[in-house]
């Protein structure tokens, strides 16, 4: 809608986390096309890239817990898939390439450490963040080696509608709606910076169109919250008491704190988060309550086995 003169082609493999229902709001737009496929498919990617002006690379395996259970798909999609996209962008006329990444590549912060920034040394701690760090370095290398016009953005934890319910906020909403307990890792004092998906998307849009080639930009919500604080907020919004909290054994290598400095985005573009956390959380909870058939459908089948393996066995 913002760019009616653009033709948007969405390449998606539709893995377990993909759902065509998510695309209903845009599927009838004349300037939008969906292509089911894999970014590791060199022939398909090459054909699509030939006719495009820019690539926004969002495709990734992204759930840390799954990467601990089996990292193979993370290496395949996040590293090899990124390489395939970069090669296609390079050989088809050095297409503009924006790579979306995570703050987890920077490692973990102590309670008094300064937030991550664009020059923070990389120190990934999980198979997921290691695969994203590798992809970041690949993207940057194509700028320095081949002159490919790239930008990279590293963002903090996203929340909002349509998020697959293996992630903390939609998982806890679904459990609480069903009267189930919510599995809080360890003491629940792990701190994350949270940004609403709408604010993140606006930041990516700006970097794609205005970012300086070869540069990295950090996108965050300036909104540090402990996981237990998030849990209490959801209990409040859904009118549930604290008996619904169940502390489970922490996951291996669980980073204690992430935070991100967005001063570069503010200085260069005047960008910052617009949606305050209380409003964003209420809107998110309301969306999941209004779209119960959507999340019940995606939580059926194999998801139940994953949930049992990931949380029930940790009690």
Would you summarize the structure shown here?
This protein is an alpha/beta fold. It has helices at residues 42-50, 64-69, 72-91, 127-146, 168-177, 197-210, 227-237, 263-269, 277-290, 292-298, 302-310; strands at residues 8-12, 32-36, 54-57, 96-102, 150-155, 157-159, 182-185, 191-196, 216-219, 224-226, 245-248.
Give an overview in words.
The chain is of the alpha/beta class and 315 residues long. It has a single domain, classed as 3-Layer(aba) Sandwich (Rossmann fold), CATH 3.40.50.720. The protein has eleven helices and eleven strands. The chain has a four-stranded parallel β-sheet with strand order 3-4-5-9, with helices on both faces. Helix 1 runs parallel beside helix 3, helix 3 (72-91) packs parallel to helix 4 and helix 5 (168-177) runs parallel beside helix 7.
Please write out the topology:
Elements: E1 8-12, E2 32-36, H1 42-50, E3 54-57, H2 64-69, H3 72-91, E4 96-102, H4 127-146, E5 150-155, E6 157-159, H5 168-177, E7 182-185, E8 191-196, H6 197-210, E9 216-219, E10 224-226, H7 227-237, E11 245-248, H8 263-269, H9 277-290, H10 292-298, H11 302-310
Parallel strand pairs: 1-2, 3-4, 4-5, 5-9, 6-8, 7-11
Antiparallel strand pairs: 8-10
CATH architecture: 3-Layer(aba) Sandwich
Give the helix/strand class: alpha/beta
Order of helices and strands: EEHEHHEHEEHEEHEEHEHHHH
The shape, in one word, is globular
Profile the largest sheet.
Answer: 4 strands, parallel
Strand content: 15-25%
| Number of helical regions | 11
- When the domains are counted, the total is 1
Unreliable residue runs:
none
* Spatial strand order of the main sheet: 3-4-5-9
Name given to the CATH homologous superfamily: NAD(P)-binding Rossmann-like Domain
Terminal residue distance: 47 Å
């Amino acid at each position: 809608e913002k760019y009616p003169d653009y033709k948007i082609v969405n390449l998606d493999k539709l893995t377990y986390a993909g759902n065509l229902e998510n695309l209903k709001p845009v599927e009838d737009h004349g300037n939008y096309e969906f292509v089911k496929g894999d970014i590791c498919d060199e022939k398909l990617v090459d054909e699509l890239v030939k006719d495009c002006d820019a690539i926004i690379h969002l495709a990734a395996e992204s759930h840390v817990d799954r990467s601990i259970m089996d990292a193979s798909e993370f290496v395949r999609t996040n590293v090899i898939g990124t390489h395939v996209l970069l090669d296609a962008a390079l050989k088809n006329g050095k297409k503009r390439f924006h790579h979306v990444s995570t703050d987890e590549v920077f490692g973990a912060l102590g309670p008094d450490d300064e937030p991550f920034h664009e020059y923070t040394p990389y120190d990934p701690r999980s198979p997921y963040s290691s695969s994203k760090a590798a992809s970041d370095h690949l993207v940057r290398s194509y700028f320095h080696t081949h002159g490919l016009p790239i930008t990279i953005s590293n963002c903090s934890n996203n929340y909002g509608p349509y998020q697959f319910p293996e992630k903390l906020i939609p998982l806890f909403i679904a459990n609480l709606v069903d009267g189930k307990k919510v599995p809080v890792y360890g003491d629940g004092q792990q701190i994350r910076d949270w940004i609403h998906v709408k604010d993140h998307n606006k930041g990516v849009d700006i970097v794609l169109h205005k970012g300086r080639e070869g540069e990295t930009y950090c996108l965050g919500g300036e909104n540090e919250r402990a996981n237990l604080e998030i849990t209490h907020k959801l209990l409040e919004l859904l009118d549930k008491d604290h008996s619904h909290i169940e502390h489970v054994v922490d996951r291996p290598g669980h980073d204690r704190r992430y935070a991100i400095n967005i001063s570069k985005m503010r200085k260069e573009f005047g960008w910052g988060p617009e949606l305050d956390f209380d409003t964003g959380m209420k809107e998110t909870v309301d969306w999941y309550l209004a779209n119960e058939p959507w999340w019940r459908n995606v939580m059926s089948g194999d998801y139940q086995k994953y949930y049992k393996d990931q949380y029930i066995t940790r009690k």
